[in-house]
Amino acid sequence: MSTPSAFVLPLKGLGKGFYEYDLKVDDSFFAAFPESPIRRADVDLQLMVDKQSRELVIAFNFAGTIATACDRCLADIDLPIEDRRQLIVKFSQEADEQQDEGDIVYLHPDTNDFNLAPFVYEMVVLAVPMIRTYDCRAGEPPYPCDEDLLERIDASYDTASDAPPPAGGEGEKSSPWDVLKDLNKN
Question: How crowded is residue 20: how many other Cβ atoms within 10 Å of its Cβ?
Fold first, then answer.
């Protein structure tokens, strides 16, 4: 795997304090991961590194879009994603090589560089929602979704109340458990 050099954090010579990096996660970044479900992306990543004597605290803030197929109409869309995550890197003499325990990584104090690319990849992929839809008719035309297929879906419901509420709709959020609330009122 060829890691872009922008995602390698030099640890030697990095003094105590706060550091901020602005990076771009795009198509070339995901090309380094051959099994990636994401092929096209345009994500802005802001790293905030707090270097302390025995650990690093790295905050990942990212927002942007990924190319995917809409789960509602199967058209190609640019799905917005955003997330905030944190990674703690602790320096330990017992760590011969990098040891990963979820949100905590252990490194030997003599480690020169820390490759952030696998963690960035994992965080961006986990930020992609399971159901990849958004309000298809928001904004101004031309809409990215397949209008013909959306009209067929709308026509397949007997009444308007049978149709599911639009994604990101206003008002009260409905839950699948709302149907069960009225069962004990008999």
Answer: 9
Instruction: Please tell me whether the overall predicted TM-score, pTM, comes out greater than 0.90 for this model.
Output: no
Chain segment 98-120, per-residue pLDDT in tens: 666 667 888 888 888 889 999 99
* Count of beta carbons in the 10 Å neighbourhood of residue 63: 14
Write the pLDDT tens digit of every residue in 151-174: 776 777 766 566 666 554 444 566
pLDDT, residue 164, reads 62
Alpha-carbon dihedral of residues 92, 115, 44, 20, nearest 10 degrees? Answer: 50
Give Cα 58 distance to the centre of its chain: 16
Contacts of 7 (CB under 8 A, 6+ apart): 23, 29, 115, 116, 117, 120
